[in-house]
Amino acid sequence: TTSAPVLDLGPTAPSFPPGFLWGGALAGNQCEGAWDVGGKGLSVADATTYKPRLDPTDYQGAHTVTTADVQAALAHEGTGMYPKRRGNDFYHRYAEDLDLMQEMGFRSLRVSIQWTRLFPTGEELEPNAEGVAFYHRLFAAMRERDIEPVVTLHHYEQPLTFSIDRKGWHERALVDHFLRFARVCFEEYGQYVTYWLTFNEIDSIFRHSFTTAGIVLDQFAGMDTEEAVYQALHHQFVAAAKTATLMRELVPGAQMGVMLTRTLHYAMTCHPDDALVALRTNRENFLYSDVQVRGEYPTWLHEEWARKGFHVDIADGDLEAMKDGTVDYVSFSYYMSMVSTRDDTGMQKVSGNLTSGAKNPYLDVTEWNWQIDPKGLRYSLTELYDRYQLPLFIVENGVGARDVLEDGTVQDDYRIEYFRQHIEQIGLAIADGAQVLGYTPWGCVDIVSMSTCQMSKRYGFVYVDADDEGNGTFDRFRKKSFDWYRRVIATNGGDL
Ligand code: BGP
């Protein structure tokens, strides 16, 4: 008798196309520092302090802040903010960092343009010339080193003032303020930049409503917070779509992407109810890329709004604008996989804590309890490509760790192993048909952690001598993974 055919999981050898955009990723608010230099205004990121999560189902996640916190930030007081504001001093050291990236052979670098460098309060009609000049220097320096910019327009960096006299993105006016900012970016930097992204991890609006949308909880007393956040999200969807349309008018040939946190969830068990819960959890995550790829809300969301009695103001022309401003590629961050949990009422909402699901007994975790799952990256690439049939771009991946500098370097074999396994799975997904534009590991030079506001949660191939209080020389040191990644790029993924 012939044995049953073994499930063929596809290719067994990873492959990468010529011109694959190997690189790294940064965000202005987490690396530049110089938070009050060059005319820059305070952004919500400058007012973000880490608050231990009290309730894992709390919609607002680690970055719940009150109006009092915001007032303290405006007064430049408060503790725990300074590491965030200091970054790794990229504002002054970007040329040195680009030299290190060129040494590794980077073909791309993802950065963000801080809205408050160009428009300190967001309401100015003309941009701040010093801010405009900084990003000209940065993008020109990248082009001189043949490093392709991948630019995020909003990486938690909207003006803090919108959280004082306005209700953040709950206010419709922010759509036009954002479009004025985007227009200046396209007009000034379209000469350097082909790959654009609008909102970083737009799905995190429920997890980090303050940093993602400037929502301050106590401004919505008496309102349903979830309904208010959906209204803010609608405004961001409209802004993202109109920005894509504007880009096509101003920068022919440029590409606009959506940026999603891929929060891959496995079912708790093979029980059909658990399978349905995982389906729902993953479908909620795909909402954000579905809307920007397809240009419309899925029926299930309208049904959910109706069931919950939510009213979201959709202005005349919004749905047409969303349909017109769809994206050219799908970018996403991937750090871990999770397990959907089901309480007796159905599904526990995975809100703030990316690890608020159940533990996966088959996976190791990082020091910050993020579940390490390289095959989950292959799973996500295959699933996303099957879903959208658009080019994909992995714009964040990596492992935060308490690296120790010894004899001028860091023996980060754990990071090499993490990347080796994830890069192999990327190559297998590509060999299996997924079209992937590039791979930009997060925090390629050590920067401040978004969720913990710490420097000590390090991701880089390059160590930065700065501690959680922002003390140190800020000098750079190549870690062991620096030369390993240089060889990976030099062999286009051949030598892992
Ligand atoms: C993503 C953010 C990045 C970065 C990354 C690592 O959610 O897009 O800004 O912060 O997470 O997370 P953390 O910095 O919290 O370790």
Structure description:
The active site is at 396 (nucleophile). Keywords: Glycosidase, Hydrolase. Belongs to the glycosyl hydrolase 1 family. One of its GO terms (biological process) is carbohydrate catabolic process. It is a single chain. By secondary structure, the chain is of the alpha/beta class. Helix content is 37%, strand content 11%. It contains 15 helices and 12 strands. Strands 1-2-3-4-5-7-9-10 form an 8-stranded parallel beta barrel, surrounded by 4 helices. Strand 3, helix 7 (173-189) and strand 4 form a beta-alpha-beta unit. It is globular. Residues 52-62 and 349-353 have low confidence and may be disordered. The structure holds 6-O-phosphono-beta-D-galactopyranose. 6-O-phosphono-beta-D-galactopyranose binds next to loops.
Oligomer designation:
single chain
**Largest sheet, order of strands side by side?**
1-2-3-4-5-7-9-10
Helical fraction equals 25-40%
**Biggest β-sheet description:** 8 strands, parallel, barrel
Helix segment count?
A: 15
Terminal-residue CA separation: 41 Å
Q: What's a concise summary of this model?
A:
With 496 residues, the chain is of the alpha/beta class. The protein has helices at 28-31, 67-74, 82-86, 90-104, 115-118, 129-144, 173-189, 209-213, 225-250, 272-294, 299-308, 318-324, 374-388, 413-431, 480-490; strands at 21-25, 108-112, 148-154, 195-199, 255-261, 264-266, 329-333, 337-339, 392-396, 436-439, 462-464, 476-478. Helix 13 (374-388) runs parallel beside helix 14.
